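ok, trying the design again with the full structure, not the truncated one.
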């Protein structure tokens, strides 16, 4: 892995997984003393300007992280030079991102400690439990990602 200064986390709508990943990533970067630009976006434009899903906000808050101020954005608002690493939540996001970014910058979140599994979209989950599982997956994967970044930076 090359030196990483800026990371973009991407899911479909930028209201569930990627804002949660952004919040976790910012929190862990601060705790680890890592100076990183961290942002999130969605591959669709369905939720531009909207706050994260209330269940993502609640799960983050229960873990001491505030993501309530984040607003949904679409990935094509960014250019290829803005980020060193683009992290897709699932394989469909990964394929969609290859339209905007060079392949050497795009990775799958599940490749970091999750044996390549997709981070499932919890949007249609009925309760908070699914969001808690997503939080746990993201927390583990982002820690593993940061371990690799620390070795290269």
């Amino acid at each position: 892995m090359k030196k990483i200064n800026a990371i973009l986390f991407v899911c479909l709508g930028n209201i569930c997984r990627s804002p949660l990943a952004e919040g976790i990533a910012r929190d862990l970067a601060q705790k680890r003393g890592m100076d990183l630009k961290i942002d999130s976006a969605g591959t669709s434009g369905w939720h531009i300007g909207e706050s994260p899903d209330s269940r993502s906000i609640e799960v983050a808050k229960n873990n001491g992280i505030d993501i309530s101020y984040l607003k949904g954005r679409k990935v094509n608002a960014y250019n290829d030079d803005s980020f060193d690493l683009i992290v897709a939540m699932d394989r469909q996001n990964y394929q969609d991102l290859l339209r905007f970014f060079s392949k050497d910058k795009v990775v799958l979140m599940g490749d970091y400690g999750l044996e390549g599994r997709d981070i499932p979209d919890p949007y249609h989950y009925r309760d908070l439990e699914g969001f808690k599982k997503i939080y746990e997956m993201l927390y583990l994967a982002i820690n593993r990602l940061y371990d690799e970044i620390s070795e290269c930076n």
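Keeping the full-length input from now on. The first helix runs from residue 17 to 32.
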